[in-house]
Amino acid sequence: MGNAILVNPIQQKNPVLKFIRNVPYEPSDTIKMDYVVGQTTGVIYLSLRYHRLYPNYIYDRLNSVKNLYVTRILLVFVDAENYHDAIREINRVAILSEFTLVLCWSMEEAGRYLETFKAFENMGTDLIREKVENDYLAKVTDCLTNVRSVNKTDVLTLLSTFGSLKRVMEASTEELSVCPGFGEQKVKRLQRVWKQPFLMNKKRKT
């Protein structure tokens, strides 16, 4: 399929095509999805206003393309008010049909989604996976900055004063309080963390 988005003939008059500007697209009579944005990815497009006029359309449409692609996306343009109930129902249908629901609130946003799906077709998951540093300072910083109001400067202060996380945890209230930037509330929050269990114990039935 090359580097172009394939467009089903039933979508050729969709205004969303005007907003696909950064990747090419071309019509295809052979696809069953509305848009094919990768070798394993297909997209069905739905206007919420259209859904209200023809509520059975999406049920039949998703059923007709079920299991065709590894990644199946239902792109819904929210162009109607009081949409919450309709979105809940569409989400239920998407889950049952094994589609991923993506919402957009403008034609331009819908176009950007289609461009992005295509542009990232061959990208690995490393782009969205959290990057965790391996060195000791990075790990301690990642740990301690989860405590409210503790920042990276505070972590450096603690490690330079006590030498290790173990010694920080063993430090008394008085020892922590003399560290620059550590007031009474910050010390209390930090010490409260040491006393919390890593795993929540389930309440035993009596």
Automatic annotation (TrEMBL):
Keyword annotations from UniProtKB, A to Z: DNA damage, DNA repair, DNA-binding, Nucleus
Domain ERCC1-like central: 5-118
InterPro entries assigned: ERCC1-like_central_dom, ERCC1/RAD10/SWI10, Restrct_endonuc-II-like, RuvA_2-like
Any Pfam family: HHH_5
GO cellular component: ERCC4-ERCC1 complex; nucleotide-excision repair factor 1 complex
Presence of keyword Protein biosynthesis: no
Entry's Gene Ontology molecular function annotations: damaged DNA binding; single-stranded DNA binding
Gene3D superfamilies, alphabetized: 3.40.50.10130, 5' to 3' exonuclease, C-terminal subdomain (1.10.150.20)
BP-aspect Gene Ontology terms: double-strand break repair; mitotic recombination; nucleotide-excision repair; UV-damage excision repair
NCBIfam families in the cross-refs: rad10
Family: Belongs to the ERCC1/RAD10/SWI10 family.
Annotated protein name in UniProt: DNA excision repair protein ERCC-1
Source species: Rhizopus microsporus ATCC 52813
